[in-house]
UniProtKB/TrEMBL annotation:
TM segment ranges: none
PANTHER family (alphabetical): INACTIVE SHIKIMATE KINASE LIKE 2, CHLOROPLASTIC-RELATED (PTHR21087:SF23), SHIKIMATE KINASE (PTHR21087)
PROSITE patterns: CS
All copies of domain CS, residue ranges: 70-164
Family: Belongs to the shikimate kinase family.
Identification of the protein by name: CS domain-containing protein
A GO term from the CC aspect: cytosol
Superkingdom assignment: Eukaryota
One GO BP: response to stress
Amino acid sequence: MSSLSFFAQNRIKTLESKIPAAATPPPAPSKLKSSFRRIAPFNFPRFSLKSLSTTKRRSRFSCNLSTFPVNTRNYEFADGASEVELRVKLESAEAIGPKDIILDARETTLTIKVQRYGLLTTVVEISRLFDRIRPSETIWYVDENELVVSLKKQDSELKWPDIVESWESLTTVAAQLLRGTSIYLVGESTEMNQLVARELSTGLGYAPIATKELLETISNQTIDSWMAAEGSESVTEAESAVFESLSTQVRAVVGTLGGKSGAACRPDKWRHLYAGFTVWLSKSDAADEASAKEEARRSFQDSGLGYSNADVVVKLQGWDADHAKPVAQAALSALKQLVLSDKKLTAKKSLYIRLGCRGDWPNIELTGLDTSADGSAPPNVS
């Protein structure tokens, strides 16, 4: 249904690694000392992540998004300090040994199959783990009627709320990652921006704000009648003033005006948008993943639009209001990766607001920082 790409305005961080062969079972290790949580059957979006070309200051990525049902049946999940553990029930009247298990653990995926009487049955297929693992350090063994799998995290500081990246797991961990930083939805469609913002606000527990509704309430007229009476420039300036008033607002998701009348379309109106995380929702004409990646690259390099300043771009092959939640999930997934690639980014956003949103993003000048209130030094955001 849609494809997604995003860039981070920081020094390049390589997120690719060689994929080793399927893990082999060593002797059974000691079990993780943490409680398990029963996971019921569910559906989740499928992502495939591939690197795009990089520049000196920006790293760009692209992935496709589609939704399909996966049979996860009966398993338990536990999060440890540096690893996560999965326990899968092996439903069989006869004993199952290591030779009957085929386990393929990769950096972001996990597939487990059981072979009985010459037939292979997939018992777990996760096409998007919650975060990256170290495949070569995967350990698994059979414990009576359970398969126990230990996966080594790449980021030991990140708490996994679930084994799979889903809407529920993303919204659960958002408080840890975003730290209250507001989110702005920008792009060509006002409706799209508003609906996706509403879904994000519901999932995150943030305040939903639509600049179209604010402007129409303040002016006591519709945007169309306002433009007819005073021109699009008047609407653009008014929304820019709204951005300024919202720049110090925390825990808000803002759906902005789309099209040329929207202030986000103008590169010179981004001074206060940099205070939050920005997501560009863009329709795509690409027929395949390779074309989508090239289109995303051109969007940032050649568009000349203010949208190219966004932290994240979601490329959509068409739009339907019923798809707002999957698009919101794609945006949240990209924001998660963005923040994990630069863990000082939220502190940097906070510092930018503290200095008055002067437009010097991302190369913030510390001159003029007032520390007299609490005597604290600015965070190290280099």
